[in-house]
Each structure stands twice: as structure tokens, then as C-alpha cells.
Specification:
Layout lengths: L14 H22 L11 H7 L11 H12 L11 E2 L8 H13 L10 H17 L7 E5 L2 H16 L3 H4 L10 E6 L4 H9 L7 E4 L9 H13 L3 E8 L11 H11 L2 E5 L24 E3 L2 H4 L7 E5 L3 H8 L32 H36 L3 E4 L6 E6 L9 H18 L3 E7 L2 E7 L7 H19 L3
Parallel strand pairs: 1-11, 3-4, 3-5, 5-6, 6-7
Antiparallel strand pairs: 2-8, 7-8, 9-10, 10-12, 11-12
The structure holds pyridoxal-5'-phosphate (PLP).
Pyridoxal-5'-phosphate binds next to helix 6.
Length: 495
């Protein structure tokens, strides 16, 4: 780095050499990071105040030497990053990103295509359509299906629910909800385990948070279809308008998959929109062994599937797929601004992705998904998905053998939940047991050895463990068990 000179904003003569110079620097930083990952602590122990101090600088008036800027990234940012790519990160549905996707994303940054209008991203928009076709095929949708890449699952769920709302409340798009002839309140149904983006979405769409009916789940956390049916019938009897049934395929807290075929039957019976949130669990579609769990997903009107979860592409990239084609999305979102209204002939408008969703300027996220799918292939993904589920089954089997742990629910994806209940803890109150889970999670976090989350299941706290790194091996999973036992034992003796 020492030979790096301060370069102002490059010109046409220096742009290429600047990329070359910084590319070498960044490659080294990323490779060093990757090399250390297997032994590095998973998380920093720095407090927000300590980090604020590191970055407490005035607005830079003069540009500084780029070498110093990258030194600071190395010195101050990387050591205090959450090591999500670590094989011992057992946290949220956040993957280790595939190198092929990271570097394809670098090209997306350098080309800076604007995937709103086809004219501003001709090749990348066609690649996006190709990626969407592949995803549609993967979940069993027919030829007509289409979709749009999104920032993530939250935006995808919002788009799905917007299509559902528009179908139930004719005229709402143009004249507002009050103009609609739909009777009573517009109601959306999902399991009590649904992702919080559903709560936000019903608010944004003008339905109101109270009109998301959260249906209770059974002992294994699947939506109770009998209660769903009863809730719909009750709402109809009270003069309300059911809009949409949403099923989870890989619920956030448990990883379980709702009975999608049964939900499709209910949606069909009551003529409701059927949306499946397969943001995470859509990855099961790669696996010959596990894809049966998604049976019924192909009957959904819309499906959320996130490449930035179980397909290991770097953030941000989700997708919303619609069974009946782009027309469904165009009905909801199409618009023709003055500066994008020229007829250019051909099928270019079909590739104007601003017509299919909420976003204007759109990153060429398709490139990283396309590159990853081509490099790994369906079989490569299947191999990783199967391996990760086996690892979690092994983990669950280890917990099953240990008296201090109690499994909660079952393993349907690469996620398991468990409670730490050492001798004497089972007699304690729910609040005390909950506190124990939190305390153990915090001890593990502070140790730096691994990271996992806690969640609330049927009113009680549990540890939530997800394998979402293709780097994770059995030794990492066994290490996690030892770490939990070690930290748990210290907790039991009040250390
Ligand atoms: C099941 C499910 N749906 C939707 C989302 C939202 O996805 P994102 O965070 O990409 O917006 C998540 C996030 O974890 C999720 O687990």
C-alpha cells in the first residue's frame, strides 16, 4: 500500500489504471479476510461508542491518499465486522457469499447499469429476465410466469401483497381504497410465524396492521389450516373481504414449511390470492431429496424467493415471481413517464423493469445470480442444501442426547431450535427459562466462537441455529455443541 499515491477523481486516461491498482489492493484485503475466516472470532466485542470514536472525524474537505482510506477499512472496519461469512456464523438467513457472485457483483458496480429501463441496461435486463425464467422453472411455474428481482424478501412480499390487494379491491390503485366496492375490511391471512414484512406491508398497502390475521400454529409450528378456514368464514360472515392467504416455506424463526397444497386448496375454495414466502426455503427446490416439502408452491399466484439467502449471493437480492406473467405486475405498477415514453419498437418495453415493481433506479443484481447459477448449477446447489440439512440433523441428534438441551419443533430445512434447560431449570418459571436462553446466547456471542440467535416460539424463548454457510463442516457444528455446553456450564455455576 505504501507506493499508492493520492489520486484525485480519475479521468479517461487514469480510470483503467486506478481500477487495476485498487483491484489489486481489494483482492488482497478480501483474500486475507477469507484466509483468516476459519479461525477468526465471529463477532467483535466493540460497543457502539467505541466504534463511534474510531470514525469520529469531520467532513473531509480535501481528498486524502486512497492508501490511507483502504488502510482504515482494513484496520477499523474489517476487525469489527460481523463475520457473517464465517463457518461458525449460525445466525439469521445470511449466507457466506459465493466468490463468483461477489466478483460478478463487482462488475455490476463498475458497469453501473440502471435496470429500470431496458435502454439503460440492455444486456443486464435480458439477463434478469433469464434469471427470473430459471427461478420460475425451479419452483415449477409454467411458461407464462414472470417476476422481478427486488432488494430482498420484504420488498418481494410487499409486491406480492399489492397484487393481491389490487385484485380484491378493484380501482384501489387509481382511486384509493375507499373507492373500492369490497365490503368491510380487506384481510390478509398468514401464520403467527410469518415474517414481520407482512405486518409492514399491510400497513403500507392501507389495509392496517390489525387486518393481518395471524393464525395459530400446531406443535411443530405449521399454520393450523382448520383455524385459517374458520377465520376466513368468520370474516366473511362479519362482512369483511378476505384478500390473500400467505404460506411460509422456511419460516424465519423455525425454518418450517407450511402445508402449501392445503393452503392452495383453501385459497382456491374462497377465491383468494395465494402467496408463498419462500424467501429462504425456496432453496429446497434445488434438492431432489427435499423439494417435496414445497409441493403446492407451483399453485401460488406469487412467490418470494431470495437469492441472497439460500443461493449464497451477496446482499441485496430477492425476487418476486408471479404465476400468471408480467401482466399481473404491470397491472399493479406500470407507468410511462415523459422521459421514458418514446416508442422504440421491438420488445424493449417488456424489459423495462420499472414497470414491474416499486423501484426506479435498479442495480444489475441479475448478474451475480446469473453467474452463481451458471457456475454452481442446480446439482451443485442441491449438494450444498442436502449437506446443510444433514449437518443440522446431526446437530439436533447431538442435542437429543444431552440432558441439558430440549429440541423445539423439527428440522425441515437447515435450521433447528433448542432450549438450554440444565438441572433445576425445568422447574423454574418461563421468564427465568427465557432469561437463561438470552444469557447463553450472549455468552456465546461474547466468546467470539460462534454466533446464533434466540427467538420466541409459542411464547417461550429458544436458541435458533441456522447453517447458511457452505463452509460449515461437521467439526464446526460439533464445536458449537461443545461451546454451548461449556458456556452453559459456567452459567449454571453463576460465573
Ligand atoms: C421468511 C422470510 N421472509 C422474508 C424475509 C425478509 O427478507 P429481507 O430481509 O431480504 O427483506 C425474511 C428475512 O429473513 C424471511 O426470513
Amino acid at each position: 500500500m505504501s507506493d499508492a499515491k493520492h489520486t484525485p477523481v480519475p479521468d479517461t486516461k487514469t480510470l483503467a489504471s486506478e481500477h487495476e491498482r485498487l483491484g489489486r489492493v481489494v483482492t488482497e484485503i478480501v483474500a486475507d479476510y477469507a484466509r483468516a475466516l476459519d479461525s477468526a472470532p465471529v463477532c467483535s466485542t466493540a460497543t457502539p461508542a467505541e466504534l463511534e470514536k474510531l470514525f469520529d472525524e469531520p467532513l473531509p474537505l480535501e481528498g486524502e491518499d486512497i492508501a490511507a482510506v483502504f488502510d482504515s477499512l482494513k484496520r477499523d472496519v474489517i476487525p469489527h465486522a460481523m463475520n457473517i461469512p464465517s463457518p461458525r456464523y449460525f445466525g439469521l438467513f445470511n449466507p457466506t457469499p459465493l466468490p463468483v457472485a461477489v466478483w460478478a457483483d463487482t462488475i455490476a458496480s463498475a458497469l453501473n447499469q440502471n435496470g429500470a429501463a431496458w435502454r439503460n441496461s440492455p444486456s443486464a435486463s435480458v439477463v434478469e429476465a433469464r434469471v427470473l425464467r430459471w427461478l420460475c422453472e425451479l419452483i415449477g411455474y409454467g411458461e407464462e410466469s414472470f417476476g422481478t428481482l427486488t432488494s430482498g424478501g420484504s420488498e418481494a412480499n410487499l409486491i406480492g401483497l399489492k397484487c393481491a390487494r389490487d385484485r380484491a379491491a378493484e380501482g384501489a390503485r387509481d382511486r384509493g381504497l375507499r373507492s373500492s366496492k369490497a365490503s368491510g375490511e380487506l384481510v390478509v391471512y398468514a401464520s403467527e410465524q410469518c415474517h414481520y414484512s407482512f405486518v409492514k406491508s399491510v400497513d403500507i398497502l392501507g389495509l392496517g396492521r390489525e387486518h393481518l390475521r395471524k393464525i395459530d400454529t400446531d406443535s411443530r409450528f405449521h399454520i393450523r389450516v382448520d383455524l385459517l378456514r374458520a377465520a376466513i368464514e368468520r370474516d366473511i360472515a362479519e362482512g369483511h373481504t378476505p384478500v390473500c392467504v400467505a404460506g411460509a416455506a422456511g419460516a424465519t424463526s423455525t425454518g418450517i414449511v407450511d402445508p402449501l397444497d392445503e393452503l392452495a386448496d383453501v385459497a382456491e375454495e374462497f377465491k383468494l390470492w395465494f402467496h408463498v414466502d419462500a424467501a429462504y426455503g425456496g432453496g429446497l427446490a434445488f434438492s431432489e431429496k427435499h423439494k417435496w416439502r414445497l409441493r403446492g408452491i407451483e399453485r401460488a399466484d406469487s412467490v418470494t424467493i431470495d437469492p441472497h439467502k439460500w443461493m449464497f449471493v451477496p446482499f441485496m437480492c430477492g425476487a418476486l415471481l408471479v404465476r400468471d406473467g408480467g401482466r399481473v405486475l404491470r397491472d399493479g405498477f406500470d407507468i410511462t413517464p415523459e422521459y421514458l415514453s418514446e416508442e422504440r419498437g421491438g420488445a424493449d418495453v417488456e424489459y423495462d423493469f420499472f414497470r414491474y415493481g416499486q423501484l426506479g433506479t435498479r442495480r444489475a443484481s441479475a448478474l451475480k445470480v446469473w453467474a452463481a447459477l451458471k457456475a454452481v448449477g442446480v446439482r451443485g446447489y442441491a449438494e450444498v442444501v442436502d449437506r446443510q440439512i444433514e449437518l443440522v440433523k446431526h446437530l439436533a441428534a447431538r442435542f437429543d442426547e444431552l440432558e441439558e438441551f430440549e429440541l423445539v419443533g423439527e428440522v425441515e430445512t437447515a435450521l433447528c431450535c433448542v432450549r438450554f434447560l440444565p438441572k433445576g431449570a425445568r422447574e423454574k418459571s418461563v421468564a427465568e427459562q427465557d432469561e437463561l436462553q438470552r444469557a447463553l446466547q450472549q455468552r456465546v456471542e461474547r466468546s467470539g466462537g460462534a454466533w446464533l440467535a434466540t427467538t420466541q416460539l409459542h411464547g417461550r424463548r429458544a436458541l435458533r441455529i441456522n447453517v447458511n454457510s457452505f463452509l460449515t463442516e461437521r467439526r464446526h457444528v460439533d464445536y458449537l455443541v461443545e461451546l454451548l455446553m461449556r458456556e452453559g456450564a459456567k452459567l449454571s455455576v453463576g460465573e
